[in-house]
Design brief:
Number of helices: 13
Radius of gyration: 31 Å
Keywords: Membrane, Transmembrane, Transmembrane helix
Strand content: under 5%
Oligomer: single chain
Distance between the termini: 12 Å
Largest sheet: none
Structural class: mainly alpha
Order of helices and strands: HHHHHHHHHHHHH
Length: 335
């Protein structure tokens, strides 16, 4: 979530302060003129027109807010419906990753090297070494070893079995939640987790084929992986067999098709009211209460003229606030 900068906060506070000052000034000036009977009559005559204009604006806002709410509900419902399917695909993929992670395809000594010598190191630590939060990651990158970079693939697959970016150890039994935490999904997407399969088994497999022994994966596990891949997308992985080409395609598919959709649908399903709707609702309240209800009570109940003065002043100040903040608000919403 983006945090508002002090400058952005200032853009909202300054017009609000000026609107408040304008409101107080109008109340003071108009109150001074209420000693003139002709002015009181003029305000009273304008009350009906004032109610009509404010009511019209309020109705337009209600119609817009209602239609926007229905659209938002439709988007959220659509996201929830699709999210279940994408989540299942993620379950199947993590099952495949779990098999590969625990298999014997890795160079001898790699698992001990990562899990013992660099215990607690994660793929995210390595990718974010420049932040200086993990000394272990810096030591890891400076280390010379004989694993020809396959340790990075091992860490990447390990990261896909975690459900929290702060987790350090893969549990013995992998859990498959109803909904993946947004924090871990954003990390997977940010660091293109899954694309390592395409890189190591596709783009650069000629280099890594001597270090990643796919034949060491048990045959029953190979068959299970193919079944799981077909559960992810039966058309895309139709007639696939367990080999480097298949794994490269799987990594590319997940990175381009599943991770972005998982993040998108989660984001849409969890969205609250957009800021623009809250902004317009606040305007609707101001126009309804002070532009319609208060003047109406003045006419019906014969309230003091100060009621009308306050009503006029607040609505004029609200219009001033809208005119000075609406563009900045829209600009912030789309940026």
């Amino acid at each position: 979530m983006k945090k508002k900068s002090p400058v952005q906060n200032l853009y909202a506070v300054i017009p609000l302060v000026f609107s408040g000052v304008l409101c107080i000034a109008l109340i003071f000036l108009l109150q001074q003129k209420t000693t003139v009977p002709a002015f009181v009559d003029q305000l009273t005559n304008l009350a009906t027109l004032f109610i009509g204009i404010s009511g019209f604006v309020a109705v337009l806002l209600v119609v817009y807010l209602a239609s926007a709410t229905l659209r938002l509900k439709s988007v959220r419902s659509n996201a929830v419906n699709h999210l279940d399917g994408v989540t299942q695909k993620m379950h199947h993929f993590r099952n495949i990753v779990d098999i590969l992670y625990r298999s014997k395809m890795w160079p001898p000594g790699l698992k001990e090297y990562i899990d013992d010598e660099f215990e607690g190191l994660t793929f995210f630590d390595v990718k974010e070494f420049y932040k200086g939060k993990s000394k272990l990651a810096i030591e890891f990158l400076q280390e010379n070893n004989n694993f020809e970079d396959t340790e990075n693939l091992y860490l990447e697959l390990k990261s896909l079995l975690l459900l929290n970016p702060k987790e350090k150890k893969v549990p013995e039994n992998i859990s498959y939640p109803n909904a993946y935490p947004k924090e871990i999904v954003s990390k997977w997407l940010e660091h293109k987790c899954g694309s390592g399969l395409w890189y190591y088994f596709g783009y650069k497999f000629a280099i890594f084929k001597d270090f990643l022994d796919l034949d060491a994966v048990f045959e029953r596990h190979q068959e299970k992986i193919i079944v799981l891949a077909n559960s992810i997308d039966s058309q895309h992985f139709e007639d696939s067999s367990f080999n480097d080409v298949f794994l490269a395609r799987l990594g590319e598919y997940m990175n381009k098709q599943v991770f972005p959709k998982l993040f998108q649908f989660q984001d849409n399903a969890g969205k609250g009211l957009p800021g623009i709707m809250k902004y317009l609702y606040a305007i609707f309240l101001a126009m309804s209460l002070f532009g319609v209800l208060l003047p109406l009570l003045y006419l019906l109940l014969g309230l003091p003229i100060i009621t009308l003065v306050v009503s006029f002043s607040i609505v004029v100040s609200t219009i001033f606030f809208i005119s000075t903040t609406f563009f900045q608000f829209l600009n912030r919403e789309i940026s």
